[in-house]
Design goal:
There is one protein chain. The chain is an all-alpha fold. It has a domain of 32 residues. Helix content is 91%, strand content 0%. It has three helices and no strands. The longest helix is centred in the middle third of the chain and has 108 residues. The radius of gyration is 51 Å and the shape is rod-shaped. It is found in: Golgi apparatus.
Length: 146
């Protein structure tokens, strides 16, 4: 009877053991799933870190490009202002030259000024050919005084 009682006790113990086995297997599967989820999370975390670094590099590059663009726009604006100033200066110089030429033509037509027009024209041409030489102006002054 001793053996029968042990068998009966084993059978009695087996029922709770049979009901806990699926729970143990479920826990093992959940543990495996948890390990896989942690591994996937680690991979995603690393991918996120790399993506954030890429974003930061792109942001720095964008800032550099914006700074260079701003500098180029400033240089363009400065160039446009310089060009406008040069055009204004050129216009004023043309106007002054036209006025001077008009004055010279009036003087040459005036009969009281008996200076030979050919000599005056030659001196003016020499003046411009020699890059506005002061020597020519000096000669011109001496010629006009005498």
């Amino acid at each position: 009877m001793h053996l029968n009682q042990k068998i009966r006790n084993c059978l009695i113990c087996r029922v709770p053991l049979d009901s806990t086995m699926p729970r143990v297997k479920q826990r093992e599967r959940l543990g495996d799933d948890l390990a896989m989820a942690r591994e996937a999370l680690a991979k995603l975390s690393e991918s996120l870190k790399v993506a954030n670094q890429g974003i930061e590099i792109s942001r720095r590059e964008k800032d550099e490009v914006v700074a260079k663009l701003s500098q180029a726009e400033k240089m363009l604006a400065d160039g446009k202002r310089s060009l406008q100033k040069l055009e204004d200066d050129n216009s004023r110089l043309r106007h002054a030259l036209e006025q001077s030429m008009t004055t010279v033509n009036r003087m040459s037509l005036d009969s009281d000024n008996s200076v030979d027009r050919r000599i005056v024209i030659k001196l003016l041409v020499t003046y411009f050919q020699r890059n506005h030489s002061k020597e020519v102006i000096g000669s011109f002054k001496l010629f006009m005084v005498s």
